Amino acid sequence: TFALPSVVPSSSIAGDLLVGGQTPNQLFVIDGTTDRVVKQIPLSGVGTPVTIVFDQRNQNIVYVTTNRWQSICAVDIDKGKELKCIDLSRAENGSRVVVRAGALDVNPKTGELYVYELRVKEMLGRYEILPTRIEVFDPQTLEPTRNFEAPRQATVMAFSPDGSRLYTFHVGDIYEYDSSSGKIVRRTPLVYHNVTGMGGVDGLPFYPNYAESGYVVAFGYGAEDPFHGTWQVGLGQFDLKTGGLEMYELAPFGPNNYYLG
User: How far apart are CA 50 and CA 15, in angstroms?
Assistant: First the structure.
């Protein structure tokens, strides 16, 4: 199993580094020029690294979700060692709250780590599903400083280049937040977008190299053509600088265009 990798600009070599994860719970740092593994870094806990993001202010530092999505580790990829790990699950008001990280990103200006959390309270004989939220962590101590509620089913988080806006990509919509206050300032419909001649869109953003390109790309969406009863496939491109979404149809979806096997 190999986690979705992150491309990190390197301060120690000419070119970029590719950072990926593999079972059993370790990171690999790959020279993007030679394709050679230059570091192999074991992580605390069990499972497999899942999401990997880097701090644009200190590009030697990456944050990794691990331990079945319940922990986050800060790793110095230049020194090749784990710096600190935190458990997201904790006791609250006498009950244990199990927390898993659904998405994360680092504010490019402040260095704060933003984590989208899925939370469940363990109670005697039952579980209580708590509201999903975004929690903000201090980059020096990895202690939580504040949190705010967020809609469910987020898959990716990404900041505007100046760090003032946070975007979350959900199963259905894209939300824009004021990163300081946590207030939602705009919602961009994706599935139900009210575009004449175009039905509901089925597509999810994946983990892209948006820090350098300035875009988050939805990997392959499918959209129903209600007039012809067919499906079209395309690519969605979201501009983190302007908050604009563009969608490009590529071809009809069908056995004559796509083959499996």
Answer: 24
